[in-house]
Write a structure and sequence with these properties.
This protein is α/β, with parallel strands linked by helices and 390 residues long. It folds into two domains: 183 residues, NAD(P)-binding Rossmann-like Domain (Rossmann fold); 165 residues, NAD(P)-binding Rossmann-like Domain (Rossmann fold, 3-Layer(aba) Sandwich), CATH 3.40.50. Helix content is 33%, strand content 15%. The protein has 13 helices and 15 strands. Helix 5 crosses helix 6.
């Protein structure tokens, strides 16, 4: 198969979906692997490294879109790329489809086979760990006086107390942020809705952190004395209220920081997305760091870890075809977003109010033994296509 590694063009994105290690493996499998020139440069991988691994270097992304049967990259399909996919082409990237209707429209119109990478990770994405660890650093960076923050140092100084931090959400992202904050000497409180998770985290750190149930009452009480909020809660896209509203933000001391790693509109009322080039803004006297692709700041480490984790998906699809690969891997199956003009992603159907068809049905897998996987979110939809013709 002709497999293509695109150069990511999202503002401030420096990661690459495959390193020379993965290219060498795919070439050894008998594939032709194309890499856009400069795709790995900001992550520390030169074109010569890819060529040595057997890759074919192209000058532009357009050449890869036109040549390859299967293309992959890290972040969403940008508007400037909407006309480039070809019918039947396989695409693997972080689509975030429920939040990007125009992107989904383009993929459906092109009748491609698209997988949204963020839903395909059986053990959680390395990008989540990267976002949590780097996000903790960025939150502390934003607190420096020259960035508009209060100038508190993580562990404090003799006679000066350290940073009081709240981490909202204790999934992979939150746990990674906690690790960095604790090791740097911050006073950490973890807020989650799962008592078992809070118990495990408290035990891991030998009771050196505080825990609380994540609800408005507890947050309202805690925020006035909090220096840094790390938000790693995956907020429902159809939620009708904020986890932290403007009044709660205003209750925080001037120069405090909110680092919103999750980047879900509707969770924190004062949130709006920022970029690495212009990462912060101030609302209600509070510094907000809301970069949507935080892992891009540590592109070298993230690319190595992420590429290794997605290589099995590439090999599975190439070796077994889309249907066979989805039967073997339930996490890959649940990430199928578009199939030859039909939406196959339930959350997107529910959020956007458009019809869909389950992957196992459109792939002809019903009644076959399938590798199981949990649903990606609590969003459900019974808005099915009345008729499907392939």
């Amino acid at each position: 198969m002709k497999f293509g590694i695109l150069r990511d063009i999202k503002n401030g994105e420096f990661r690459v979906i495959a390193t020379p290690t993965e290219v060498g493996t795919l070439v050894a499998d008998g594939n032709e692997v194309y890499i856009c020139s400069g795709a790995g440069y900001k992550a520390g991988f030169d074109d010569a490294d890819y060529a040595k691994a057997g890759g074919i270097i192209t000058e532009t992304n357009e050449e890869i879109w036109a040549t390859c049967d299967f293309v992959a990259k890290v972040k969403e399909i940008e508007e400037s790329e909407y006309d480039l996919p070809r019918e039947g082409q396989i695409i693997y990237t972080c689509i975030h489809p429920a939040a990007h209707r125009a992107e989904v429209d383009a993929l459906l119109a092109k009748k491609v086979i698209a997988f949204t990478a963020e839903d395909s990770h059986r053990f959680g994405s390395p990008n989540c760990e990267a976002a949590g660890k780097a996000g903790a650093f960025m939150g502390l960076w934003a607190m420096m006086s020259n960035n508009g923050g209060s100038g508190k140092f993580a562990s404090g100084l003799a006679g000066a107390p350290g940073v009081r931090a709240i981490v909202c959400g204790a999934g992979i992202v939150g746990k990674a942020a906690i690790e960095v904050l604790v090791n740097l000497g911050c006073q950490v409180t973890v807020a989650d809705i799962n008592v078992g998770i809070l118990r495990d985290i408290s035990s891991k750190y030998s009771g050196k952190i505080s825990t609380m149930i994540c609800n408005r009452y507890n947050l309202e009480a805690a925020l006035p004395s909090t220096d840094l909020v790390i938000n790693s809660v995956r907020w429902p896209k159809d939620a009708t209220e904020y986890m932290i509203d403007r009044g709660m933000v205003a209750s925080m001391r001037r120069g405090s920081v909110i680092c919103d790693i999750s980047n879900d509109y509707g969770c924190i009322e004062t949130f709006h997305e920022t970029t690495h080039e212009d990462p912060t803004y101030i609302e209600e006297g509070v510094v907000h760091y809301c970069v949507s692709n935080i892992p891009g700041a540590i592109a070298g480490s993230t690319s190595v870890s992420y590429a290794a984790s997605v290589l099995p998906h590439f090999r599975n699809i190439i070796s077994n075809g889309v249907a066979g690969a989805c039967a073997r891997d339930g996490f890959l199956r649940r990430s199928l977003t578009c199939y030859r003009g039909y939406l196959t992603h339930e959350e997107t159907s529910g959020i956007q109010g458009r019809p869909w068809i389950p992957p196992e049905k459109i792939l002809g897998l019903e009644g076959q033994p399938l590798d199981p996987a949990p649903k990606t979110t609590v969003t459900r939809s019974e808005n099915y296509y009345e008729e499907v013709t392939l």
